[in-house]
Amino acid sequence: MHSFYRTPVLNEWTDYNGHLRDAHYLLIFSYATDALMDHIGLDEAGRARTGHTLYTLEVHLNYLSEVKRGEHVEVRTQLLAHDGKRLHIHHGLYREGSEQLLAASEQMLMNIDHASGRSAIWHADVLATIERLAASDAELPRPVHCGRVIGLPR
Amino acid sequence: MHSFYRTPVLNEWTDYNGHLRDAHYLLIFSYATDALMDHIGLDEAGRARTGHTLYTLEVHLNYLSEVKRGEHVEVRTQLLAHDGKRLHIHHGLYREGSEQLLAASEQMLMNIDHASGRSAIWHADVLATIERLAASDAELPRPVHCGRVIGLPR
């Protein structure tokens, strides 16, 4: 589990009630993915050097609690799995220092070669960092909001 | 299938490459949900009259194509199922007039009583409109990106 991103809840992310809008939970998780990219060497300089970037393929997001304007939140990120070109991750949203999970997002990210627009295997340096993350997260319990299907009982 | 929301892709929704950021696909779907709320009588006046609003419980989102700054897009919305207090919906993102699906989002929405913060059964007028939508969508095929679980092969 890694805390890569923290932020106050900005005015422009909230609705008329001062509550964080559903899409802006995902914006906070998106910035946390940017921070994860920085961590694995796909920051701006790394993207220029490798020609690679990450695309989001799929997002699942569970809303567990309201979050209000001005609150200070952090995203804790867990690497669930990876292969030669994909990362399966989990972002959890928390108030800073709190253990109450406010929202959970499971995501699949794909390494993309910028010039071709096609998927690409990890650059060796990037993969080495991913493998260190995977080793560090290997013993963590699987987050609760994983593997979910949406539906109403028939 | 109902087209409740259309918009150009605004500058502030795009990244350094002029591509729509992952979280801003969801913002467009969020505005489409606002438009759906207007349609079923939970616009601002309806929320004041009924004391009800909709909360997003869960979102699944598949990214299928890049979308660029300035493109004109529309959301087509399908009601998949409902019960006494929940809507199970599907939003599809398209370029205006095109049949190419750019992104797909399956969502579960809950009717909430604003004063108590708890779930509430639909107001009768709202339910009547939901039932008309359900009847109108009953014969549509189920969207492809429904019922998905995220994961890598082991």
Descriptors:
homodimer; 154 residues; alpha+beta; Thiol Ester Dehydrase, Chain A; six-stranded antiparallel sheet; 3 helices; 25% helix
SSE diagram, text form:
The structure is a homodimer of 154-residue chains.
Chain A: E1 2-8, H1 22-39, H2 44-50, E2 52-63, E3 72-82, E4 86-95, E5 103-113, E6 118-119, H3 124-137
Antiparallel strand pairs in A: 1-3, 2-5, 3-4, 4-5, 5-6
- The helix count of chain A comes to 3
Largest interface: A-B, 34 and 34 residues
Helix content of chain A: 25-40%
- What is the typical, i.e. mean, pLDDT of chain A? 95
Radius of gyration of chain A: 16 Å
Q: Low-confidence stretches of chain A at least 5 residues in length (pLDDT < 50)? A: none
How widely separated are the two ends of chain A?
37 Å
- CATH architecture of chain A, please? Roll
Biggest sheet character of chain A: 6 strands, antiparallel
The number of strands of chain A is 6
Oligomer: homodimer
What order do the helices and strands of chain A follow?
EHHEEEEEH
CATH superfamily of chain A: Hotdog Thioesterase
From the spread of the alpha carbons, the general shape of chain A counts as: globular
The number of distinct structural domains of chain A comes to: 1
The top level CATH class name of chain A: Alpha Beta
Structural class estimated from helices and strands of chain A: alpha+beta
Q: Could you characterize what this model shows?
A:
The structure is a homodimer of 154-residue chains. In chain A, 25% of the residues lie in helices and 34% in strands. Chain A is of the alpha+beta class. Chain A has one domain: Hotdog Thioesterase (Thiol Ester Dehydrase, Chain A), CATH 3.10.129. In chain A, strands 1, 2, 3, 4, 5 and 6 form a six-stranded antiparallel beta sheet that branches. In chain A, a hairpin with a 4-residue loop joins strand 5 and strand 6. The longest helix of chain A has 18 residues. The termini of chain A are far apart. Chains A and B meet through helix 1, strand 2 and strand 5 of A and helix 1, strand 2 and strand 5 of B.
